[in-house]
Design goal:
The complex is a heterodimer of chains A (about 750) and B (about 325). Chain A has about 750 residues and is α/β, with parallel strands linked by helices. Chain A folds into 4 domains: about 5-115, Carbon monoxide dehydrogenase alpha subunit. Chain M, domain 1 (Helicase, Ruva Protein, domain 3, Orthogonal Bundle), CATH 1.10.8.190; about 120-325, Rossmann fold (3-Layer(aba) Sandwich); about 340-495, Bifunctional carbon monoxide dehydrogenase/acetyl-coa synthase(codh/acs), Chain M, domain 3, CATH 3.30.1650; about 515-740, Bifunctional carbon monoxide dehydrogenase/acetyl-coa synthase(codh/acs), Chain M, domain 5 (3-Layer(aba) Sandwich). In chain A, the strands form 7 sheets. Chain A has a 6-stranded parallel sheet with strand order 5-4-3-6-7-8, sandwiched between helices. In chain A, helix 7 links the parallel strand 4 and strand 5 (about 205-210). Chain B has one domain (about 25-325): Alpha-Beta Barrel (TIM Barrel). Chain B is about 40% helix and about 15% strand. Chain B contains 12 helices and 10 strands. In chain B, helix 3 (about 90-100) runs parallel beside helix 4 (about 120-135) and helix 11 runs parallel beside helix 12 (about 310-325). Chain B starts with about 30 loop residues before the first strand and ends with a helix. The interface of A and B includes residues 142 and 532 of A.
């Protein structure tokens, strides 16, 4: 962090503490130690928790002037010398401590002013509000806890113009932030500016004027502390939890307008302790390291450097504040000309009912979601380059071009989440009435119904849908999203080419991910509603047995919903490398299977295999006579060499059981290097459902070559060749299947 | 011949050891009421219902009785069992329920339903006020179960009854934050309700406690259907929740609440007296049996609080609980 800020904070803290010291001496003389000290708002509304910052930190109740001596002495003890010009010792801790001392001293000053009858402050005809009363805190607190009001913004100082002051406050209100006002620049403040512009201040308009000095900013941290008492079950004196509650639950920040001074820096340091960052509209040093606050501590966003007119500047400045504090704003559903909801997900639009078709036989269709820098994305923007639905004469010219390009930015966004989010487009689009989405990537296929078209649905509406749904459902990783549709040949061809490169990169990335290269697997307990003892453990080289979840999907799902069914599973100590048995996995599975499954290996069919729920894509079953295994997939309704059809098998092994020799799995697990590697892998496969064999044909051939068995595919039987063990074994002998000469499986 | 042979019959009774489960977990105790109001403790068990040889059952299942500020949704057969003068005033209704042995009053604010009378905050507060002043029993208040409306009326009610540890519901997956926040601010108990899914039940407990409601202030309602309307699902879910709690899972170790009464009285068997097969029997008995059987089943699966509707069901279920508790 900046030595400049550290030095300024140290000076500011000393200045405020000296002032408090002098005032206390005076008050003890003039009022005596028994004069009562109590915070109230301008209409006499009571506040709870004494002087709340002091009470929160020290558990010390201040009820009268004499009670102020102890916190003042403690504040003095937190003062450290200014950092040396030449010898730069670590000073972040000292700076934060100085901030704490400053807040206590400020509360002492305000406490004495209350005892003297000088608070809440009056300036001319205007009566400042002072601290927020208890009833108001409760009702705002509920809005804060339920997320409808994320937090508060303390606006300190004077805006560059009256108009700027109004715009800044309006932008904050539009995002549901409470606005607290304090401080001044050469005697003028935002409060003066707002009053001159006829803006109503007070509880009903969510704008509260604390006072005209910087010291009154302490009412904001007092409010935050009281919120932690009321809503965080924090006990007075448990300062650590007071601060953590506010860091994680109260989305507050300080916006300093106009030049900084020592006292502002010192007060700001106190706010940082609460996890509240400061954004200045002037050129000041940054404090970029994160940890105390969620992201940066101090950010400088000089007003003159922000592009645009006053309105635009105000919007961008507040955008920055919202981003730095990590505030997620819930966006209301946009007005669509058609209905939106899961009921339309499976809607099929027939050729005769459609207004326009993109993709499939009508031309190229592609969709691509990419991560961008936050400055490169304009949130909520949706553009259609080329003709929109109403400008396409599909009846006369059924050749269309379609590319949907989505750019997202987010603090927690990672490029690995791109495919996960991109796949959401399918569900999100399909929930729009009269909009049918099939396929993905470069085989995107879309139909829009005549009815939806007549109701007014256009491509640009889809951008609104993506904007709101991504924010509301994936807000934990997406901060900004913009959509561009291209419907002209030249652009679509360009994007198609670009997208193909991206897809290739992505495939290589997940393809290159090995179990050994990560130390965390993920669980999936989604199926526990009907298989209560089943736990899927999903590793990079083994998808969930339903085939729907890969390791990356689970990781993204965990980021999106940390309380959901996909939880990280620490691998822990490896107990058996060949079988893939890990201490961490065993522990997790035991704890989460109602203490039923004690061990679970990841690469073995014979020793403690994974349990099977009810939705596996395939089942593998040991065929002792062939010294190998057969794999039957869900689409195969026929008989199999083990004597059971797929459904009968499911009855045997489903429901969360662990059955050595039988196991459910996903289709693509067959292609994994870890596919029952403990028993010899692909070489053990002696029979496979015909549809599965066809579906995986090319990939399987590649795997066979990779393991040095290029003609293995011909040696694996299927339903067309035989469905009994009696016929299977002679077939394998005739073909010389490698399983016959391998070590016995039993 | 036979007479001359003397048998000495000796019956050897083998030592039979009754298999006992050993549990490690304990369901949390939740205290409802206080601040001048009677206090009722629910939960606390370290064994499955009534199996006191396997653990402790410090508190019996509690019987709550439902009163409504708009009784029109209840069938006439049920209303007449209370008397018309009683059901048109929630205060008198609650008072009579208390006399009949209710341990908790469940006030369902049916009049606030947007498709019904759509009454507002003032009517809701007045209904709560009436019940609070009519009886000294602990109170449970359930909104019309329409998210926005629940949030609108339950927050002021939480304020009104501050500190009296009333039970407020329902927190559901997509609408729990406001009610939970109101419970935190005024020290009340939240009902976390999920639709017959053990994972969701657990997840919602986590979410509600995550926002700041202590687990000691949560009751979970895993939902139920009446007899013949999916009660077997509810039995299985309740039982598994309770087993999970006893096996040491901290998050599911909160008391379970079910509403067999209102669930019964919205089904045909408890509503229709004419035009049904003769084998269904007389209406009065049938409807009552339906409620009693639904309640009995769900209590045996792990419910710690049940809401009932019919005066005779209250009497019967209370006596059943007393006998099974060995009282």
């Amino acid at each position: 962090m900046s030595r400049f800020i550290a030095a300024s904070t140290a000076r500011g803290a000393r200045q405020v503490i000296d002032k408090a010291d002098n005032m206390l001496k005076g008050a003890l003389d003039s009022l005596g130690p028994d004069a009562p000290v109590e915070f109230k708002d301008r209409s006499g509304g009571p506040t709870a928790y004494y002087l709340p910052v002091i009470y929160g930190y020290l558990g010390h109740k201040v009820e009268k002037v004499g009670d102020l001596q102890y916190p003042l002495d403690r504040a003095k003890s937190l003062l450290a010398p200014e950092p040396d010009e030449n010898m730069w010792l670590p000073y972040l801790g000292e700076t934060l401590d100085a901030g704490v001392g400053t807040l206590w001293a400020e509360e002492i000053i305000k406490g004495i002013e209350f005892a003297q009858g000088k608070q809440p402050e009056a300036k001319g005809d205007f009566q400042f509000n002072g601290p927020i009363d208890d009833g108001q805190l409760r009702s705002w607190g509920i809005a804060m806890v339920d997320g409808s009001m994320p937090g508060f913004a303390v606006v300190i100082g004077e805006a560059p113009s009256n108009q700027a002051a109004v715009r800044i406050v309006r932008e904050l209100q539009a995002r549901g932030q409470l606005v607290f006002l304090s401080g001044n620049v050469n005697g003028r403040s935002v409060v003066d500016q707002l009053l001159e512009e006829g803006v109503d201040l007070g509880y009903p308009t969510y704008t509260v004027s604390f006072g005209s000095d910087t010291e009154s900013t302490v009412y904001a941290t007092g409010y935050a502390t009281r919120a932690a008492f009321s809503f965080g079950n924090v006990t007075p004196g448990d300062w650590r939890r007071v601060l953590l509650y506010n860091k994680f639950r109260c989305f507050a920040f300080a916006l300093v307008l106009g030049p900084m001074d020592d006292v502002k820096w010192a007060t700001g340091a106190g706010a940082i302790d609460y996890g509240f960052p400061a954004i200045a509209n002037t050129m000041v040093p940054h404090i970029l390291p994160t940890g105390v606050t969620r992201y940066e501590d101090v950010i400088s966003e000089p007003w003159d450097d922000i592009p645009g007119d006053t309105n635009e500047k105000a919007k961008r400045l507040i955008d920055k504040c919202i981003e730095v504090r990590g505030i997620k704003v819930t966006i209301p559903q946009p007005e669509l000309p058609v209905t939106y909801g899961p009921a339309f997900e499976g809607e099929v639009i027939r050729r005769r009912d459609m207004q326009v078709e993109f993709g499939s036989k009508s031309g190229p269709g592609v969709e691509l979601l990419e991560m961008k820098d936050t400055d490169a994305v304009e949130d909520g923007k949706c553009e259609v380059v080329g003709p929109d639905i109403d400008e396409i004469d599909f009846g006369n010219n059924p050749n269309t071009y379609f590319a949907c390009k989505i750019d997202v930015a987010g603090r927690a966004m990672r490029d690995e989440f791109e495919p996960v989010l991109e796949r959401q487009l399918h569900n999100l689009s399909n929930e729009v009435e009269g909009y049918q989405h099939q396929g993905q990537r470069e085989i995107t296929w879309i139909r829009v119904s005549k009815k939806a078209y007549e109701a007014g649905l256009r491509l640009k509406h889809m951008g609104d849908v993506f904007h709101t749904t991504f924010h509301n459902q994936f807000g934990s990783i997406v901060d900004k999203i913009q959509t561009t549709f291209y419907t002209n040949q030249e652009d679509v061809e360009k994007i198609m080419e670009y997208a193909r490169d991206k897809y290739r990169e992505r495939d290589e990335r997940i393809g290159g991910l090995k179990d050994e290269s990560v130390d965390t697997f993920y669980s999936c307990t989604l199926c526990q509603s009907f298989a209560p003892t089943h736990v899927c453990v999903i590793n990079p080289e083994r998808p969930g047995l339903c085939g729907a979840y890969t390791w990356l999907d689970c990781r993204a799902a965990y980021e999106i919903n940390p309380r959901g069914p996909n939880q990280p599973v620490e691998k822990g100590k490896c107990l058996d490398e060949a079988k893939g048995e890990f201490e961490g996995v065993n522990q997790f599975v035991y704890d989460n299977s109602q203490r039923t499954v004690e061990r679970m290996t990841l690469y073995s069919l014979m020793d403690a295999p994974m349990t099977t729920c009810g939705c596996c894509e395939c089942n593998m079953v040991l065929i002792p006579e062939a010294n190998g295994i057969m794999i039957v997939s869900r689409e195969d309704f026929g008989e199999t060499p083990c004597g059971m059809k797929f459904t009968t098998l499911m009855g045997q092994i489903g429901g969360g059981q662990q059955s050595p020799g039988m196991m459910g799995h996903g289709k693509r697990f067959v292609l994994s290097e870890k596919f029952i590697s403990a028993e010899g892998g692909l070489r053990r496969v002696v029979w496979m459902s015909k549809p599965l064999k066809e579906e995986l044909k090319d990939d399987l051939q590649q795997r066979c070559e990779a393991i040095g068995e290029p003609d293995l595919m011909d040696k694996i039987a299927d339903g067309d060749i035989c469905t009994t063990v009696e016929d299977l074994v002679p077939f394998l002998e005739e073909k010389g299947h490698p399983a016959l000469s391998m070590e016995s499986m039993i | 011949m036979l007479d001359s042979i003397k048998f000495k019959l000796e019956v050897v009774v083998p030592e039979v050891e009754i298999p006992k489960e050993k549990w490690t977990g304990r369901v949390r105790e939740v205290k409802i009421g206080g601040k001048g109001r009677k206090e009722v403790v629910v939960g606390g068990a370290t064994a499955m219902p009534f199996l006191d040889f396997e653990g402790e059952i410090p508190n019996p299942p509690r019987v709550a009785v439902e009163v409504r500020d708009d009784p029109s949704g209840f069938p006439p057969g049920l209303l007449s069992s209370w008397g018309d003068d009683v059901v048109n005033d929630v205060g008198s209704w609650a008072k009579k329920a208390a006399e009949l042995g209710a341990e908790i009053i469940t006030l369902r604010l049916t009049s606030a339903h947007p498709e019904g009378q759509n009454t507002g905050v003032e009517e809701a507060k007045s209904a709560v006020d009436k019940v609070l002043s009519a009886v000294d029993l602990p109170l449970m208040v359930i909104g019309p179960e329409i998210a926005d409306k629940d949030n609108e009326i339950l927050v002021p009610i939480a304020d009104l009854a501050e500190g009296q540890r009333i039970v407020l519901g329902n927190c559901v997956e997509n609408n729990y934050k406001t009610i939970a926040a109101a419970c935190i601010a005024a020290n009340h108990i939240a009902i976390a309700k999920t639709p017959l899914d053990i994972n969701l039940a657990k997840q919602l407990n986590v979410q509600v406690s995550d926002i700041g409601v202590p687990l000691e202030s949560i009751l979970m309602d895993a939902d139920m259907g009446a007899l013949g309307y999916g009660i077997e699902y509810a039995i299985s879910i309740d039982e598994r929740l309770k087993l999970a709690a006893l096996m040491g899972d901290s998050v599911t170790a909160v008391p379970i609440i079910n509403h067999p009464g209102p669930e019964t009285w919205r089904q045909k068997e408890a509503k229709v007296s004419e035009g049904v097969p003769e084998s269904w029997g007389g209406y009065d008995e049938r409807a009552l049996y339906w409620e009693e059987l639904s309640a009995t089943s769900i209590i045996h699966s792990g419910a710690d609080v049940v809401t009932l509707c019919h005066p005779k069901a209250v009497e019967y279920i209370k006596s059943m609980i007393a006998k099974l508790m060995g009282q």
